[in-house]
Amino acid sequence: MNGKPPAGFPGAAASSPASSDPASRVALAEVTLINGAAAQGCDVSPHDRGLQFGDGLFETIACRRGRPRFLAWHLERLLLGCRRLAFPPYELGDVRDEVRALARDTDASLIKVMLTRGVATARGYAPSGSETPTRITVRYAWPSEDPAARQDGVQVRTAALRLGENPALAGLKHLNRLEQVLARAESRDTRIAESLLFSASGRLVSGTMSNVFIVRKSRVHTPRIDLCGVAGVMRRVVLGEAAHAGVAAEECILRAEDLAAAEEIFLTNARIGIWPVRLLDVRELAPGPITRRLQEHLAPRLEDPVDAEH
């Protein structure tokens, strides 16, 4: 993989040499841009509202064969977040062009775009309305993967932490991820690929980094994201693929008893596509026929993505 900046970004800052530890190499950014320019040392103000209050949004975009997957839908969610948080008008064309340029130079990469309200122009929580948004774009190398996760399934656990419910933020990928941080910190077992989260009122919501689907009687169900949680782009794609594959699928309220009765469980996010669940706490499962059918339908769109909505 090429860590050089793509055309159009002369001098973009590559990371310092990676250590011999594979996990450390994954964590290092290949390229970091701030408002379109190469990062030089510390270019983010300590007064930026994203740092001070988590007042911002982010998208993590998987890129294969030099193209971003489902970029239009990532931008659509980012725009929804800007409107919901009442950001100043922002031209997302700059984000689109930047992501495409950074993806073009790689065979496989992850690009994270963070958009904050910008540097505070007044003290306190209330925005003044005169802020200028800050855009931070980071390209990472594609992490090493175990093929068994997609083929045989992964081990997951149920988190003790419960998500707070706030419809004003539901669906958005905002910068405050402390609930997810705490949930992941509950277990240090490296065999656990994900932790499933319920809300304060007992509704199944998602994993810490993924959306969750269950299958019962050949029907696919995924939690409604109206009180909390992130409405994932891959979740949206899979719901569409289910329709194309002739699989009944719906968003609905799910609780612990629904999870316990599931015949198949699978997880989705922008990078992994679909991971079957083979072990939930102490309950053994197996990748089922519906999960397999959806994986097959999805595979071409993941390996050779078209930078478009459909």
Low-confidence segments, ≥5 residues, pLDDT <50?
1-26
Number of helices: 9
Helix content: 25-40%
CATH class categorisation of the largest domain: Alpha Beta
Name of the CATH superfamily of the largest domain: D-amino Acid Aminotransferase, subunit A, domain 2
Q: Per DSSP, what share of the residues sits in E-state strands of 2 or more residues? A: 25-35%
Largest sheet: 9 strands, mixed
Order of helices and strands: HEEHEEHHEEHEHEEEEHEHEEEH
Number of discrete domains:
2
Explained architecture:
The chain has 310 residues and is of the alpha+beta class. It folds into two domains: 120 residues, D-amino Acid Aminotransferase, Chain A, domain 1 (2-Layer Sandwich); 157 residues, Alpha-Beta Barrel (D-amino Acid Aminotransferase, Chain A, domain 2). The longest helix has 15 residues. The two termini are 28 Å apart.
Offer a quick outline of the entry:
The protein has 310 residues and is an alpha+beta fold. Helices cover 27% and strands 29% of the residues.
Layout of helices and strands:
Layout: H1 22-27, E1 29-34, E2 37-38, H2 49-53, E3 56-64, E4 67-68, H3 71-84, H4 93-104, E5 108-116, E6 134-141, H5 147-151, E7 154-163, H6 178-185, E8 192-199, E9 204-207, E10 211-216, E11 219-223, H7 233-244, E12 249-252, H8 256-261, E13 264-269, E14 273-280, E15 283-284, H9 289-303
Parallel strand pairs: 7-8, 7-14, 11-12
Antiparallel strand pairs: 1-2, 1-6, 3-4, 3-5, 5-6, 8-9, 10-11, 10-13, 13-14, 14-15
